Known about the structure:
alpha/beta
Amino acid sequence: MSVMNGFLISAPQSGSGKTTVSLAIMAALTRRGLAVAPFKCGPDFIDPGYHRAVTGHPSINLDAWMCPEEFVRSTFQINMAHSAAPAVAVIEGVMGLFDGIAASSTSGSSAQIAVITGAPVVLVVNARGMAASAAALVKGFAGFDPQVRIAGVIFNNVGSDSHATLLKEALAGYCPDIVCYGCIPRDENLAIPSRHLGLVTAEDNPLSGEFIDGLADMAERCLDLDRLAGLGFNSALLSPSPSTPLRERKCDGGMASSDRLVNGAEPPVKIAVARDPAFCFMYEDNLRLLREAGAELTFFSPLHDTGLPGDIQGIYLPGGYPELYAKQLESNTGMRDAIRVAVAADMPVYAECGGFVYLAKGIEASELQETADFAGIFPVRCRMLPRRKALGYRQTELAADVSIGAKGAVVRGHEFHYSEIGAMPEEVERCYRVSRQGVTLGAEGFRIRNCLASYIHLHFGSNPDIAGAFIAACRG
Length: 476
C-alpha cells in the first residue's frame, strides 16, 4: 500500500477546540488545492456536516465500538483510495483522546481509532492559564499508551506572544520529540454557535465563505501546515489493501447476505432517502453499504418535495431536527399523504430518530415547541424536553424477522435526542431488545405493517447482513 499522509486531531478533554482547529486545517489545506479526506471518530453527525461544508467531501464516521475493527480499517482505506491525489486525511477525534465507553478500556475512543488506522495524533491543548504545566500534561499523554503516537501539539487559547514562547520552550525542554505545530490566540469570533441539542448543524447554520476564509487564514497564520500535511500514517496497519467491496469480504467466518442476494443479473433496487435540512443525520457508510448491496439511492426532501420519487421500492428516513421545521413539514400535506400511501401498500420503510418523529402523529405543545401534525403512521405524539432524554451507545437484538434482518440478529448504534414519545399502544409490535453494556433497556423498534422505526441510529457496518436484508425486503 502506498504511503498516506494525514493525522488525527484529539485533545485531553472536550471543549479544547478540536472542531474549530480541525475545520481550520481542513479549510486551509483545501484552499491550497489538496484533496482533504475528512473523518470523525465516534457516532456524531454534526461535525461531519461541517467537514463536508468545508472540504466538499463526505465525512466518514470511524467507530470501533459500533463496528468491528476490520470494518473501521477497511472503510478508512476505501475512502482514502477514493480520494483524489494528493490527499490528506484529517480525522477529528471525540471527547478526550483516551475517553471511551469505560474507564478501563479504550473501546469507542479516539485512541482506539489512532491504533487501528496507524494515525499520528496531534493534540489540541487548551493552554489558558498554563505554561510549563502544559508540557507536563503533554508528556503524560505521550507516555500513557505506547501504541498511540503523539506526533505534535497545537496550543489553543494562547494569551500573548510571550505566553506562546513559554509554551514552546517548556515543550522543547520536557518533550523534545514532540513538535509544536503552532499556537492559536484566543478569538471568540471563531467559535461555532451552540444550541440545546449540541452544535448547530451545518444545514441549519451554513458556514459563510467569510467564516471559512477566516478559519483558513488563522491556520495559515498560526500553524505549520506544511509539516502537518507531511505527517504519515503507519500504513503497515492497513494492509492488505481492500481490492474488493466490503460485501465480498468475510465477517465472523461467513459471507455477508448481500453476496447471496445480489448478482450482476439483477436490476438495482430503487430506495428513496430523505435528505434535506430537517433530515441530515445518516452514516455515509450506511449509504455505501446499501449501494454495494444493490441499491440505487434517490434523494428527496420531505420539506420541499410534494411527493415521493417514482418507481421506488423502499424508503429510508434518517434522523435530523424535524422539530425545527415542524410547521413547514406539517404544511407539506402531499408528502405526508405519499408516505401514508407507501406504508399502506406495505412498502418497506426504515426510519430512525428524526425520521421516527416524522412518522408519528406529530409534536405536542410544550414550552419549547408548538403543536404540529406529521405523517401519523404511529399513533403517538412527541414532546420536546428542556433536557436531554437519551444519549449513548445501544446494542439491539432483533426480536422478530423485520426488513433489516432476521430474528436474533444483533446490530449496534447510538441514541441521542431531546424528545420523548407518548405511550405506544400495546398492539404496535416491538421488534428490538435494547441493551447498553450488558444492561437491558427494554423493548423498542416499532413496526406497523412493513414500516420499522426507532429512536436508535443503527450503523449498518456493525452487522454485514443488514444492508442486504433491507435490499432483499425492498426487492420483494
